[in-house]
Structure formats: C-alpha cells, structure tokens
Amino acid sequence: MRFPLTAEEEAFSRQVRQFCADRLPSRLAEKVAAGVDLDRDDYVGWQQTLADGGLLCGAWPRGHGGKGWTPLQSYLFDEECSLAGAPWLLPFGVNYVGPVIFTFGSEEQVARYLPGILDATTFWCQGYSEPEAGSDLASLKTRAVRDGDHYVVNGAKIWTTMAHWADRMFCLVRTAADGKPQAGISFLLIDMKAPGVTVRPIVSMEGRHHLNEVVFEEVRVPVADRVGEENAGWAIAKFLLGNERLLVAEIGKQKRTLRLIRQSLEFLADGGVRLAGAAWARERLAELDARLIALEWTALRTVRMAEIAAPAPAAVSMLKIRGSELEQALTEFAFEVLGPAGLRYDPLLGLDDAEPVAVRRNGAVARYLWARCVTIYGGSNEVQRNIIARSLLAV
Ligand SMILES: Cc1cc2nc3c(=O)[nH]c(=O)nc-3n(C[C@H](O)[C@H](O)[C@H](O)COP(=O)(O)OP(=O)(O)OC[C@H]3O[C@@H](n4cnc5c(N)ncnc54)[C@H](O)[C@@H]3O)c2cc1C
Question: Structural domain tally of the chain?
Fold first, then answer.
C-alpha cells in the first residue's frame, strides 16, 4: 500500500524521475551503485545539472531563486534522486548556509553568496565540531578577536566533511568568554584560501578521504563576513541544524540499498541454491523490508504534518535513530550475503566493468564500513535518545 499523495505530488515525483532519467549520466549512476569513491567533479557536476534544471534550490523561497517547495516535495525530490542513483546532494550550501544567509544575512551577503549556491559554483563546508566540542557544541574554543574591521581567528575544527574541496566554510567561533557558553558564539563565513588556513586529511575506516581537520592560525576574516550580530551565532547555529532534519531517515537511499541486496540474492548461489530462495535470506530480507516500510510511513506522516506545524524534536530524533540503525542493518546484510568474497576490498578501486553489477563487493564493503558512522554524525543516537527522554519525561 502506498502513502496517499495528491495528483500534484504524483506529477512532481514523475517530473523529477524524468529529469533524472534524462540528465543523470549513466556512468555516474553506475559509480554510485558500485560504491566507487566519487570526486569533486562528480558531486559538483550533478549539482550544476540540477541547478540548470531549476531543481537544486527548489525548497528556497521564490524571492531568493527557489520554487517554494513544500516539505513533502523536498522529500519526494530526495527520494527520486536517490532511487535514480544520483550522488549525495551536498547539503552545506543548499540546505545549510543558503537558508541562513537569506534569513539572517545582510543584503550584501545575500547578493554576494547566494548566486554561487544557486548555480553550485561555490563549494561550502561546515566548521562546527572541534576536538573537544562535538555533542557539547557550545563548549567550542576557536577564538575570533576583533582587530579593526577584521576578526583574527585561531583554533581548530575537526571532522570537516570535504573541507579539502571547499571554497568557503561557515564556522562557529568564540567571540566572548564570559557568561553562558552559548552567548559568546558568532557565525563567520571564512575563505578557505585565506592565509593561515591549513586542511589536514583524516582517512576514515573504509580507507577513503572525506574528512579533515582544519587549523586556523591568525586568519583574518572581514567583519562583513559575520552573519547576524556578534555573539548571536548560537541561534543561527541551531536554525541551521534544524534544516534538512525531515530528510534525515534517507528513505530513498535505503530503498536503493534494499534493491541492490535483492539483485545480489538473485545472482548469488550457495551449494547450487540461489540465495533468493534460501530461508535465512528471505527471513532477513522480509524483516528489513518491513522495517523500511514502517520507517517510510512514519517519515511521510511527519513530513506531511510539517506542512501545518514544525514537527516535535522528539519525532525527528526518532527518525534519525530508526533511519541510521536501519542503514547499518541493511549495509551489514548486503555485506554478509557476499560471504568470504566480501572480504576482498580496495578502497580506491574505480569502476570494475568485469564485475557483475549485482555483486560489486567493493561497494558493499565500503558502504558497510562507512555506515558505522551514521549513528554519530548529525547528533549521535545517544543524544537523540536524550531528546526523546526529555520530551517524554518533560524534564
Ligand atoms: C562522517 C562524519 C562527518 C562529519 N562531518 C562534520 C562536518 O562536516 N562538520 C562538523 O562540524 N562536524 C562534522 N562531524 C562531527 C559530528 O558532528 C560529531 O562527530 C558529533 O557531533 C559527535 O561529536 P564527537 O565526535 O565529538 O563525539 P562526543 O560528543 O565526544 O561523543 C562521544 C560519545 O559519547 C556520547 N555522548 C556524548 N554526550 C552524551 C550525552 N549527553 N548523553 C549520552 N551520551 C553522550 C556520544 O553519543 C558518543 O557515543 C562529522 C562526523 C562524522 C562521523
């Protein structure tokens, strides 16, 4: 049974599906399906194609170059792109700093920074976490000291996704040390090419380089690149974290993984018996399928309600917990079905055309290893459980 959509919503889904069928390069979709490590051009090229079709910033208000999509349209857009095999849509410009700039920024900032997000020519990264400030973000220590019409920034950020490709970072800095920690934070837009910015790679468990440490030594940032008032950055930081939350369960991506598992089960055999017919595989597949359907309905109900009022934080936390746990279970099963063959892994292998699509083990292993982190980023699952507990116990 399908979640009820209006005729307009069905038409919208069809339109995005058609766009992907026409414009998503098949080689790129193959790389995504095979779990090949994508490069900067893969991500940016696809974002520019979406921009060209007027779809990249569809959720933005019309007055700022968007189409004023409803939350449900954003959900359907994400689902169709994922099912078509598109790369991850980098959220840093489109979903994070863009809405911050048109909500809190000056007219000059709107004119200067939004065009590069709308046409995907500026690559942004997110400088929130620090070595001693992750879940407890308000304890961040990177300092920005005023010097005339500049701030001088010193400190370090960590786990900065794709900072090595970024042109700019939106960054939380400490501009006051007294009072509540939240009250001394400002929101700066930093040029990644400025003197004193050093980006150091962090290679993650699956052997690839997406993450970085970013060090600031006497980096001069114009005061004109502060968004909002000095020491008022915490409210902006929280506004930004609230964006995209509704898509947190990544249903389209989960459906795509399940589809890949079904293909593997059809293809693989054990002792002459196709795995698709093996009781253990069918049971596990049915369980994961049921979890995905339940999550999809819960996500869609939450998104539908978001058209009327912002969803309760606990509802979004539940989506994050269930979505990330399901992603780990799916990627684990995709890896398991490959048996010992799954152990051969080369993180930097490109597309291996000789390997049957249904059993591209490299992708299954990469996805399995990568998915260990999904219960950490975007607010760890322990922290999400605290949010749910607080709302239930009203403490
Ligand atoms: C793949 C990946 C990409 C990331 N990309 C970015 C990025 O681009 N930009 C950026 O700024 N950050 C990024 N992060 C950082 C991410 O936001 C932090 O990892 C996350 O906030 C957790 O912080 P931490 O790693 O410092 O862990 P900690 O906060 O030190 O937590 C360690 C453990 O303690 C638990 N814990 C902490 N506090 C509590 C509590 N109050 N109650 C119960 N348990 C608790 C946590 O759940 C966790 O298990 C990324 C992280 C990952 C893994």
Answer: 3
The set of residues, in sequence order, having a beta carbon less than 8 Å from that of 46 and lying 6+ positions away, is 24, 28, 86, 87, 89
Token pair for 35: 């779990």
Cα of 320 to ligand 1 centre, how many Å? Answer: 14
**In the prediction, which pLDDT does 241 show?**
83
Atom of ligand 1 nearest to the CA of 131: 26
pLDDT at residue number 272: 82
Q: Are residues 271 and 305 in the same domain?
A: yes
383 lines ligand 1 (CB under 6 A): yes
Final residue in a domain of this structure, among 167, 200, 230? 230
pLDDT for position 395: 63
Diameter of the chain measured on Cα atoms: 76
> Is residue 112 a part of any domain in this protein?
no
User: So which residues are the catalytic ones?
Assistant: 244
Which of 200, 230, 260 terminates a domain? The answer is 230
Q: Residue 324: CB within 6 Å of ligand 1?
A: no
Which of left, alpha, beta for 218 (phi over 0: left; psi -120 to 50: alpha)? left
The atom number, within ligand 1, closest to the CA of 92 reads 8
Q: Which domain holds residue 319?
A: 244-393
Counting atoms of ligand 1 from 1, which one is nearest the CA of 136? Answer: 29
126 lines ligand 1 (CB under 6 A): yes
Those residues of the chain that have pLDDT short of 70 are: 244, 357-359, 395
The answer to whether 154 and 192 are in contact (CB under 8 A) is: no
Distance 48 CA to ligand 1 centre (A): 31
